Amino acid sequence: MSAPVKKLVLFDLDHTLLAIDSDYAWGVYTTTIGWTDPVAFKQRNDEFYAHYKAGTLDIHDYVHFAIDAVRQQGAAKSEAAHADFMRTTVLPAITPAARELVQKHQTAGDEVVIVTATNEFVTRPIATELGVEELIAVELEREPDDIDGNAGWFTGTIKGVPSAREGKVARVEQWLAERQLGWADVEITFYTDSINDIALMEKVDHPVATNPDERLRAIAIERGWPILELFQKRT
Questions:
Q1: Which residues of 78-110 are buried (b: 16+ CB within 10 A; e: fewer)?
Q2: Per-residue pLDDT of the chain (235 residues; tens, 9 = 90+)
Q3: Which phi and psi angles does 182 have, rounded to 5°?
Q4: Alpha-carbon distance 157 to 4, whole Å?
Q5: d(CA 4, CA 24)
Q6: Beta strands in the chain, from DSSP E residues, in sequence order
Q7: What is the largest CA-CA distance in the chain?
Q8: Of 2, 30, 150, 213, which has the most beta carbons under 10 Å away?
C-alpha cells in the first residue's frame, strides 16, 4: 500500500489570520516611537502599500525601506520594540476565529505553515503567538557573526527567493524538497486574502479565499472556490 498523502495547510498572514497588515503596521509603529520621520516615512510607506495592493510591489526595494530602522537601531532595541508592538498592535488584531481555525487544523493532525511576504523579523513572533512553528517568510541577509560569536544583524537586503507572489510557490516547493516531498506527496489547503497569491492558489488542491480583496473575491466566485470571512474590517 502507498503511504497516505500528507495534509498540509498553508496560511497567508496579513489580512488572512491578522486583521491588519503587520508590515505596514510595524512601519507606523516605528514612527510613533520616533525611529522614522513621520511625514517622509508615511508617504513612502503608503506608496509601497498601494503598490502591494495593486500587485506591482518591488519587494527588494520595499524590504530595504521597511527594515532600515531596525538595521540602524540594532538587535536589542529592535527586539524590545517588537515585543511592545506585539502587545499594543498585533494581539488586538488576532481574532478568536483565526486562532480557532489554526487550532482546528492542528488538532486534525494537519501540518500548518504560515507563508507570508512580510519579513521574518516582523512575523516570527506572530507565528509563535499563533502556535505555528513552521514559517516561510522573507528571509533577511545578516552581517557575519562578531568575534564573540554574536549573530550579525540585518543588512537590509533579502536572502534567497522572497516569499512574495510567484516566489511563494518557489519557497513552498523548497520547503517540501527539504523534507523529501513533492507536490504529489501532499494535499494542500491554502488560505489567503490577496490577489498577489493567485499563483500559489492555482497550485494547491484546496484554495480558500479568506477575507478576500475585491479581485480575489471575483475570481473565487468565478471558479467556485470557498470564501471564508474571519473578520470584515480591512485596515
A1: beebbeebbeebbeebbeeebeebbeebeeeeb
A2: 456 689 999 999 999 999 999 999 999 999 999 999 999 999 999 999 899 888 888 999 999 999 999 999 999 999 999 999 999 999 999 999 999 999 999 999 999 999 999 999 999 999 999 999 999 999 999 999 877 777 799 999 999 999 999 999 999 999 999 999 999 999 999 999 999 999 999 999 999 999 999 999 999 999 999 999 998 754 4
A3: -125, 180
A4: 40
A5: 40
A6: 6-11, 111-119, 134-138, 140-142, 154-158, 186-192, 206-210, 227-228
A7: 63
A8: 30
**β-strand pairing of 154-158 with 140-142:** antiparallel
Instruction: Find out whether 102 and 180 touch, Cβ atoms under 8 Å.
Output: no
Domains and CATH numbers, the chain: 6-228 (3.40.50.1000)
Report in angstroms the alpha-carbon separations of 74 from 37, 81, 133, 151.
Answer: 18, 11, 25, 11
Q: Which helix (H) or strand (E) holds 198?
A: helix 198-203
**23 catalytic residue (yes or no):** no
Instruction: Give the residue carrying C-alpha cell 507570508.
Output: 116
Residue among 218, 225, 232 at smallest CA distance from 204: 225
Active site residue 205: no
12, 21, 193, 197: the catalytic one is 12
Neighbours of 2 (CB within 10 A): 4
* Cα–Cα distance measured from residue 142 to residue 88, given in angstroms and rounded to the nearest whole number: 28
HSE-CB at 94 with a 13 A cutoff on CA atoms is 18
